[in-house]
Amino acid sequence: MSYLIADQVGRLAQLSPDDLVNKMLPPDSTHNFEEQRSWRESLYRLIQIVNTSGLSDLWLIAEYSLIGTHRIDAIICGFSRLFGRPLALIVESKQWNKIGDGGTQHADQVKMNFANEYRMHPVAQMFQYEHQLEANHSVVKAGNIQLAVLAFMHNLPESQKPKLFTDEYRAFAQYAHLVFVKDDEARLTHYLGSLFKKCSGEQTAKQFLAGHYELSRADFFGITKILQRKDNAVMLANQIEVSLAFDQLCAEFKKNPRHMAMIIQGSAGTGKTIVGLHLEYLAVQRHLIPLRRTIFTFAKSRMLHNILGHVNAGGKM
Fold it and tell me: Does the reported pTM lie above 0.90?
């Protein structure tokens, strides 16, 4: 698990937007202009808000990687004001300035102000990141760091915010208070103050960064859920795109039944097994393809390798 920057908020607040970007760019950078613009605008503004909230001693970790190319925009580290325990706040940052009109069949996808372009709902995304850390980050999984979440959407007018919580997005309405939009700085300042003690976040940040990614035997039990006609996993944005494509293939298959093979290819740790199990669920549950007519197989799986390695070392399934 890598990251691009980890430092005290007060020190980061002294940097100009350009200096912040330069500090984050690694020598062999592959980060595009859009990412850099996000750091220059969204991340810079977030740092300034935290700093002026009287919480300059907190620490901030930016672009923390999970699996594959997926990264958490920012994690603010400190201690819980209520419980005194180490606390890490996941911040999902969006630069959206308008929500497109027109619905979608998937409640975790939001239509942008472009034709047929959808992005993951910020509430769904921040909770997916929380879920991944709770399931796979060794320190969080052990209960040594408490998590909190919020979405930072500083370009989105207040008039656009209701679109994120009505109609097909009603299920997210209970989390509307965790989404901070344009001119929400005072509310965000109050929320941060309710979460964090005014003390150094260095210990929590270093403890968090010392954690490592773990796959447990429980990660493999998605196949059991498939057999019980249940979904197996919360997926990330790119994985959902694969799911949508598979939906279309299944619809075509029902119109013209034939033998069909779908190969899921990707780098190690990108979640191919999770996606595969989810597609099995879609085929059986949503498209009513009999389970006996489907075959799910691994060519090579890091998840399976880790599980079998645990068993060979003397563990029990």
Answer: no
Stretch (H or E) spanning 120: strand 118-120
Element (H, E) at 73: strand 71-79
Q: Give the list of residues 6+ apart from residue 69 with CB closer than 8 angstroms, or none.
A: 238, 270
* Cα(217)–Cα(134) distance, integer angstroms: 15
The encoded tokens of residue 177 equal 């208070």
**Per-domain residue ranges for the chain?**
5-209, 217-312
Which residues on neighbouring strands pair with residue 261, listed in sequence order?
A: none
Burial letters 281-303, b for 16+ CB under 10 A, else e: bbbbeeeebeeeeeeeeeeebeb
Contacts of residue 205, Cβ cutoff 8 Å, sequence gap at least 6: 6, 59, 61, 77
Phi then psi dihedrals of residue 143, to 5 deg: 85, 15
pLDDT tens per residue across span 154-177: 999 999 999 899 877 888 899 999
Phi, psi (rounded to 5 degrees) for 186: -65, -40
